[in-house]
Every structure is written in C-alpha cells, then in structure tokens.
Amino acid sequence: MAKKNGARSPLSRRGFLRTSASAAGAAGLAASGIGSLVGCGGDDDVPMTTPDAGRRETQLRILGWTHFVPGHDVWFDRFAREWGEANGVEVVVERVPFNMVRPTFMAEMESGTGHDIYEWPTPQADLEPHVVSLNEMMTELEARHGTMIPLCRQSCFNPRTNNFYALNHGWAPDPANFRSSLWSAVGMPQGPSTWQQLLEGGRQIKTAMDVHVGIGLAGSDPDANMACRALLWSYGASVQSASAEVVINSPQSIAAVEFMRELYADTMVPEVLAWGAADNNIALVEGRASYIINSISAYRTAQTNVPATAADVFFGRALMGPATALVGAHANVSMMVARHARNPNAAQDFMLHLVERYNEVVYNSALYNLPAFPSTTPQLTGDDGWLAQDPFESQPADKLSLLTDAESWSTNVGYPGAANPAVGEVLASGIVPQMFLRAANGEMTSEQAVQWAEDQIAPIYERWRAEGLI
Predict the structure, then answer these.
(1) 190-203 pLDDT, tens per residue?
(2) Where are the domains of the chain?
(3) Mind telling me which PANTHER family this protein's record contains (predicted)?
(4) pLDDT number for residue 35
C-alpha cells in the first residue's frame, strides 16, 4: 500500500488503480464558460491501467446527479470514458436531477438490476443495508492519501456497524452568499456575522429596499434542511445527541423555532415556504434576495450570466447564535455501490481512480467540490492557491479565501453524532424545515412544532435501533 507521505508502492492484492488522466477533461467547464484542468498535480508517469488488469469486469454503469456547476458533468463524462477505454471497460454515465437519484435507486433495487455506482450530493445512510461495504477500499485510500476529513468520514461511515457504506469523495461548504451593496447600506459591509444581525439588517433591507432574506423552509428543499439545522445548532439544539438519542424536543429547539418565526415575519416573503433547491440561487442572481446560505454555485452562475451581480456577491462564515456557529456541508458528494451491481469491482477501481485525480474534480467543478482527502489537491491552499487566487476570475481574486477554514465552521448533517441511517431518513423526509415552517406560517406554536417534529423523528430512530444500525 502507498505510504501516507505520498510515496508510491506496488498495488495491493486487489489491484487497485493508481492512474493518471492526462488526456481527460479537455472539455472541462465549457458548458459554464469556465476553463478546464487536465492532468494537474498527478504522477504523469503512472499508467492508466493496472498491471494485473483487475477483475475482468468489462462494463460499468454510473448514475449521477446533475451537478450544480454544469461544466463538471462535461468533464466527468469524458474522464470516465477515457478511464474505461484504457482499462477495457465500457463506461456508461447517466444523469438525473439530484432528487431523482434515490427513486431510481429504489426502483432498481426492487428489480434487482440497474446501475453499479449511484452518486448523491447528500448522505443516504439509510440505504446501508442495500449497498456494498467499502471498508477494504477505504483502507487502501487512507493508506495512500491520509485520513479522510471528519465531516466526510461521519457522512459515509456507520460507527455502530463499523462500516463504510459510501465513499464521500468530496464536499461543498455552505457559506453565506450576500449582496455587499445592500448590507453596506445598513452598516454591515462584511455581511452579518450573527443570526441577530441577520434579523436586524435583513429587516432594514426589506423595509427600505424591498429585498428579502432568502432562506427556504420547504421540506423538499435541501438548502432549507441545511439552513434550519444551522439555526438549531447555533442555539445548542440538535436532532440527535452524539450517542444517537433523539433530543429535538428541548428549550433550545423551541427558542430557535421562535427566532425563525420572527426572522420569517420581518425579513422574508411567503414564496420561501415553497422553494425548491434552485430557488434561493435564482433569487440571489435576480436581485430579489439580500442573503442566502448556499454553496458557491449561485455565484458561479452569476459570473457567467450576470457579471454585475457576481461582483456584488461576497461570502460569509456560519452565523453565530447563542451557543455556536456551525453549518452543515452544502453537499457531501458520495458514491455507493449497490448490492445489485453487476460490476462492483470495476466500480471500486473507478472510485479509487477518481480520488487519485481529485485535483481535476475540484478544478472542473470551479472549486465547488473540495476534497475529502486534502492531500490530493495541494493546489487549493497557500498564498498562491486556488482559494487565495481564484483561477475563475473572481474580483477581488481572494473572494473565496474564507473557504480555507470552512472545515472549522462546517459539520455533518448528524451533528453532534454521525450521519447514521436514522439521520438519513429524517433528512430525506424534510422534517426539520417542516418544523420551522409550521411555526413560521402560524399553523402551530413553536412548542407544538417542536413536539410535532419529535413525534415524527422518534419512531424513525426506534425502527433503525431495532435493526441494529444505530
């Protein structure tokens, strides 16, 4: 196995790939108007094929989500095809909107046939019984590249079963995206740094300029799931404890929900109650939102389509509340190998290849994807690193530099525990944003909304505990 200091050694008995993709990705981010990286930072003398030709599987089917940065998909499809050509594997990549990956998986699981690899931007821990254990592959990856960062490990490893059910190969921070001109007008040129400042400044901006805060509250909105958890955590509340006990019904949760009632009433508009995944991005780019919590994808869209808006968008860290300042990752980009996969070995070979070349993933996603294994992308950090000198023409060039410490204010969706199967089901069910919504729209009091959430969440935990998975 490879040493953690980056030295190379012969292939393990499983013949894992150590590959370069010096020809891959020339199309890059053409679809989004941003250039491509090819073969950057890898060992150009490392062959694309393994000496022992692996396990003789000649097909690989990948179902991916449609990436929020379109050029990533252009690059990835070519990257996968060229790996397949070098290894005698016919690779087929198909894409669906992120919210259709799970229904497709479930249907194919029922039929017993379908894709080999499924990729999501969010943890799917409740699917652990239906996917292949990746423990041996993860041992090889960590031997080569060092330890996976905690928030990614906690999003693909179940400590109860001691099992890696997915490869969380990358993640996207979830910073504030705010319009600097609007917040400067209310005396906050760096944007709000606390939830209370968001309320006070957002109220002034809405009153004076008719531009609202853009935090969604619909249960089906993944951004709402992350933003609402950030508010919960800031008050010292959470869905579960570190030991996976349900603790949602607490005075801290009630206080957080009560704050959201005021934030919604004073700074937002009714449309946020029905927002989907792209709506906060659209509101920011169109000038209707002063502040959203999202990845950098909305900003990248504005760079291409509305440069004047992009120039006015800046970023902020997680907002401080009475207890802490944390936000969940916007994405924990994860691959799973289904139990019904016909080509599980080729699937894992490809996944190892992807991590080996992760600097290309980072670049061709316009820095949306950050690595789970930081050693794979040394180009990110340092005075001349990509985050300090954005290669995609941010003005100023260091606009993304606050992401260098994003890991310190980011966490996994199961905080303070791991993203276990119960967390996965609660996330997929949208219970947390629905709790906030039911109070914000006046359907329930804050106490009733928190009690409602506990009534939904507790049976989920009981069921998964009975199955021995938490």
Answers:
(1) 999 999 999 999 99
(2) 30-165+330-380, 176-329+409-466
(3) ABC TRANSPORTER PERIPLASMIC-BINDING PROTEIN YCJN-RELATED, ARABINOSE-BINDING PROTEIN-RELATED
(4) 47
CA distance 320 to 469: 33
* Position 157, amino acid: F
Within the chain, which residues score under 70 in pLDDT?
1-55
Tokens 């590249």 sit on residue:
145
The 10 Å Cβ neighbour count of residue 16 is 24
DSSP secondary structure, 111-171, as one string: HT-S-SEEEESS--GGGGGGB---HHHHHHHHHHH-PPPHHHHTTTEETTTTEE-SEEEEE
Instruction: Name the CATH architecture for the domain at 30-165+330-380.
Output: 3-Layer(aba) Sandwich (3.40)
The pTM (predicted TM-score) of the whole model is 0.88
Strand intervals (E) in 366-422:
370-371, 410-411
DSSP per-residue string spanning 232-279: HHHTT--SB-TTS-B--SSHHHHHHHHHHHHHHHHH--GGGGG--TTH
CATH architecture of 176-329+409-466: 3-Layer(aba) Sandwich (3.40)
